[in-house]
Amino acid sequence: MMHRAAAAAVVVLWAALTVIDAQEQGTLLALPELEHCQTRPKHFQFNNHWYYFSWDVPSNIETDPTTGQPAGIKVNWLEARNECRRQCMDAVGIETFQENNMILQFIESRNVTYIWTSGRLCDFTGCDSREDLKPIQVKGWFWSNSNQKIAPTNRTPPGWRNTPWSQKGHFGGGQPDNAEFQINNTTESCLGVLNNIYNDGIKWHDIACYHKKPYICEDSDLLIEYIEAVHSVKL
């Protein structure tokens, strides 16, 4: 029998975050699947969490019709989360200076142009009434894989040596800048890591969620606990 606390936690999390994605594009968050969780890729490890890069999974490689060469599949932010979640993982949440360094070193070593993270702006129904999230572009960011708030964007996070947000962007200013809203009224509500796109090093940027990118998945303790409880297995 599934542990009640685990079941409740997963259901609440799933229901709450489904609201976000239903507002975006009418797509539900995926629940984990036993077989995929048992065979999830494990490319590198940090603090007892396994991670994998989407382009290192053979099934995510296809032939580019224009060049005939192998190319990694790119997906939007929600699709990235769902691909991870089916495997008891989620798009990476970069919660410490050490974890950020690990991700940046991986991006640099592989010369990856950009990746999706689980970072999200709380700009959907219910967020506008929360005083602790105002101003929204400064205090409204969170890691959707863990529901942990991201430090205010106008200061260096506690325990970090510098801010992970870029000081450059499309219009020359620091991040987040919601630049695409000024171009086509599309809010930049999702967080990606870009590799020197603006001659700024490897830095965090706010990005409109529909853009397609590769992604890094990270073990989800909550989803692993859910599958272990439901199926009486140990992952």
TrEMBL record:
Signal peptide coordinates: 1-22
UniProt entry keywords in alphabetical sequence: Disulfide bond, Lectin, Signal
Presence of keyword Disulfide bond: yes
Domain C-type lectin residue range list: 76-218
SMART domains per record: CLECT
GO molecular function, one term: carbohydrate binding
Protein's recorded name: C-type lectin
